[in-house]
Amino acid sequence: MTEPVPLLMENSIQIAWDYLEGTGELGDPEVAARFLTDAVEIMIQRGETRKLMLANRTIDAYQRFKVDRLLSLVS
Predict the structure, then answer these.
(1) φ and ψ of 16, to 5 deg
(2) In 3D, which of 12, 7, 52, 19 has the Cα closest to residue 36?
(3) By the 8 A CB rule, do 36 and 13 touch?
(4) What is the C-alpha to C-alpha distance for residues 25 and 23, in angstroms, rounded to an integer?
(5) Is 61:21 a contact under the CB 8 Å cutoff?
(6) Residue 74 φ/ψ, nearest 5 degrees
């Protein structure tokens, strides 16, 4: 049985948050929370319902976002 969407979102975001926090990559909690929430929501709207896939793709997207943000500050 599939988790209800709110629980799926919460669990996916929590997995991503815990990983990023554990690796020291989280950064500003407000920025991270907004990004992770938006990313998971978009993927769910596109049909992804696998919790670990959502978390892993969100982690990858957040890591790219942080690199892009850093590069734009340096340029």
Answers:
(1) -65, -45
(2) 12
(3) yes
(4) 5
(5) no
(6) -80, -35
